[in-house]
Amino acid sequence: MTETVKRWRKSSRSSNHTACVEVGRVGDGAAVRDTKDRSLGYFTTTSTQWQTFLEAVKTDRFS
Which residues lie within the region annotated Disordered (predicted)? Predict the structure, then answer.
């Protein structure tokens, strides 16, 4: 976690303050963290990984 996250924003998929995550741009990919416990840190993905994840969410593959 040495990369600097440019700007965090709350996911539009977060609801009811029980499943909140924040996403930020880092390098050519994304960083993700738990809004409720930011002290846990974050994980990063490559641009390809992030695009694959977003496509899976958009096509409802996690239901």
Answer: 1-20
